[in-house]
UniProtKB/TrEMBL annotation:
<dbReference type="GO" id="GO:0003677">
    <property type="term" value="F:DNA binding"/>
</dbReference>
<dbReference type="InterPro" id="IPR018379">
    <property type="entry name" value="BEN_domain"/>
</dbReference>
<protein>
    <recommendedName>
        <fullName>BEN domain-containing protein</fullName>
    </recommendedName>
</protein>
<feature type="domain" description="BEN">
    <location>
        <begin position="64"/>
        <end position="168"/>
    </location>
</feature>
Length: 169
């Protein structure tokens, strides 16, 4: 597990009041980063924790996406990834897709029919794929984030799916 994956962000209910990051060499607090993280949360949109459709402590990745993630986990991913959108993509992909889901699967297209009778490749959950794609592309338009082309992000989906399918975890 990388230091970025070990990062834990603590926030009070409501405005964020503290950040504590643990990266294997102890913990440190940086009050200067609180303002930056709060601004990011404000730019991305309102929290949907109070929504009756959202599980406790979770929010939609973006309004109307239908996919949920811990508010704190999303804030930690954004903070650890900034300003690199590709790093954010990898963190979201790893969160939403397991190695098992990536076995014999593709991120785009339709399920394949194989004339030999063998089962064809399955398509990953389209709602999750579209949600990650939309969220990362939206972050790329925000100040202090590096822009990324949609085609490059889609290629990363394909490559990430192949890499995880080949892993023996």
């Amino acid at each position: 597990m990388t230091p970025h994956e070990q990062a834990t962000v603590y926030a009070s209910i409501g405005p964020i009041s503290a950040i504590t990051i643990s990266c294997g060499k102890g913990e440190y607090s940086d009050p200067g980063q609180v303002r930056e993280l709060q601004t990011l949360c404000d730019l991305i949109g309102e929290r949907y924790c109070g929504s009756p459709a959202s599980p406790s402590g979770q929010q939609e990745l973006f309004p109307g996406s239908g996919i949920f993630i811990s508010s704190f986990r999303l804030a930690a991913m954004n903070h650890a990834s900034k300003p690199n959108c590709m790093r954010l993509f990898h963190a979201l992909f790893d969160h939403f897709f397991t190695v098992e889901e990536c076995q014999n699967a593709v991120p785009f297209g339709r399920p394949a029919n194989n004339p030999s009778g063998k089962e064809g490749k399955q398509v990953l959950d389209r709602k999750k794929v579209d949600g990650i794609l939309t969220y990362v592309l939206r972050c790329a338009t925000l100040p202090d984030w590096e822009p990324i082309e949609e085609a490059k992000l889609k290629k990363a989906f394909v490559n990430k799916c192949r890499a995880r399918a080949g892993s023996k975890e």
